[in-house]
């Protein structure tokens, strides 16, 4: 198994070397310069974020087409652009950015998806990646402590930034549960160090990956595989009988109840925020605003109001392009590229965009049957008259639950 891991790492290294050899490592150079002043003029921002689709705006000789301008799509397009590839990003909404876009209502600007991001300290891998994909133009403001407050009915608990401070705050609020808290922190640290081993299953032949999973041999490679296969509720129940602490170790809700979510994902979420939380200066739309020019400099484009209706597939079963149709009475526009990347989600991609024969293919149907939608939710955007200072509003996220049984909600 160790040989398997070594071989997988070697293969990945050879592939990366082969792909990057002609132009070198696209991330070797630091971003071009320090952050510039915020651009707040509406027309200047619209030229970047709201460039509408038309056939004559499609760049020639594309290297790739990306469906959707969410952070995944922009990251894929930006990475290819850094390697000198010409990429077209197609977005059906009237503004690029996906969950990173903002809207204005009655004089207030609201973020639709970004409320805070973890691991944005200087030198972190995530910070370096975002700096590379946005030309280093993002400034991140760290939230003061406590950055999170969890309300379980009438009881309130605070989360504090810093690996030592995070654990100390938990132990202070649950003095009888120090052993459980320290074990949870140990598992969180181990998960963050070993999670990359999950890529092993993607680097070996499918039959070998299936054999390792079905026989249970995969669990001998690393404990993270067992953590991934264990529900979060089951894991925290083994750690502690304190129901409030169980809820506090599960509070980072992302659309799936703890009983249905992976323990590995949850501990990685907690680890993600152990150093605290950050917010981008100027709001979430700044991410897309500075990612788009990088794509354009390589000859690509990010076009909105561009609904992709289907993916074009060759007789050999290879994706060769997409079709854009702005409305039922509008003419279809076929766009060809040797690489098609979908950031439209698994249900849209496999359930709507593929040609009907492929949608009904047993392999596609079996994969769709393995996933399901997360819980639905309502977002309420509230504008208040007055500044945060005038209203004495803390920069704290409040997670409010009616009780400590998160699985019963």
From TrEMBL:
It comes from the Eukaryota. InterPro entries: FAD/NAD-bd_sf, Retinol_saturase. Pfam families: NAD_binding_8. Residues 1-16 form the signal peptide. Keywords: FAD, Flavoprotein, NAD, NADP, Signal. The keyword Nucleus does not apply. The keyword Flavoprotein applies. Belongs to the carotenoid/retinoid oxidoreductase family. CrtISO subfamily. This is RETST reductase. It comes from Balaeniceps rex.
């Amino acid at each position: 198994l160790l040989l398997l891991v070594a071989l997988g790492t070697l293969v990945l290294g050879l592939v990366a070397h082969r792909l990057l050899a002609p132009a070198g490592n696209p991330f070797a150079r630091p971003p071009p310069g320090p952050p510039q002043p915020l651009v707040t003029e509406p027309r200047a921002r619209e030229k970047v974020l709201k460039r509408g689709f038309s056939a004559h705006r499609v760049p020639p000789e594309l290297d790739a087409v990306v469906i959707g301008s969410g952070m995944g799509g922009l990251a894929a397009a930006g990475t290819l652009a850094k390697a000198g590839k010409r990429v077209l990003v197609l977005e059906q909404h009237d503004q690029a950015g996906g969950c990173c876009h903002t809207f204005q209502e009655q004089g207030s600007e609201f973020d639709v998806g970004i409320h805070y991001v973890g691991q944005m300290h200087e030198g972190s891998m995530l910070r370096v990646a975002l700096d590379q994909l946005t030309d280093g133009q993002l400034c991140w403001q760290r939230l003061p402590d406590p950055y999170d407050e969890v309300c379980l009915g009438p009881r309130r608990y605070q989360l504090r930034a810093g690996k030592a401070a995070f654990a100390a705050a938990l132990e202070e609020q649950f003095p009888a549960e120090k052993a459980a808290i320290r074990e949870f922190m140990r598992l969180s640290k181990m998960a963050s160090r070993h999670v990359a081993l999950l890529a092993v299953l993607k680097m070996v032949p499918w039959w070998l990956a299936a054999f390792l999973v079905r026989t249970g041999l995969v669990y001998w490679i690393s404990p993270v595989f067992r953590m991934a296969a264990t529900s979060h509720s089951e894991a925290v129940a083994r750690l502690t009988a304190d129901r409030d602490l169980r809820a506090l170790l599960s509070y980072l809700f992302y659309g799936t109840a703890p009983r249905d979510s992976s323990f590995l994902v949850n501990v990685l979420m907690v680890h993600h925020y152990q150093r605290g939380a950050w917010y981008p200066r100027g709001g979430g739309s700044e991410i897309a605003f500075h990612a788009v020019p990088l794509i354009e400099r390589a000859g690509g484009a990010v076009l909105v109001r561009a609904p992709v209706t289907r993916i074009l597939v060759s007789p050999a079963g290879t994706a060769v392009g997409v079709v854009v149709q702005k409305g039922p009475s509008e003419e279809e526009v076929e766009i060809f590229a040797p690489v098609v990347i979908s950031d439209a989600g698994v249900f849209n991609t496999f359930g709507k965009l593929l040609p009907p024969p492929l949608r009904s293919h047993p392999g596609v149907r079996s994969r769709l049957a393995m996933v399901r939608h997360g819980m639905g939710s309502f977002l309420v955007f509230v504008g208040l008259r007055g500044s945060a200072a005038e209203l004495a509003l803390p920069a704290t996220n409040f997670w409010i639950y009616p009780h400590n049984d998160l699985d019963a909600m």
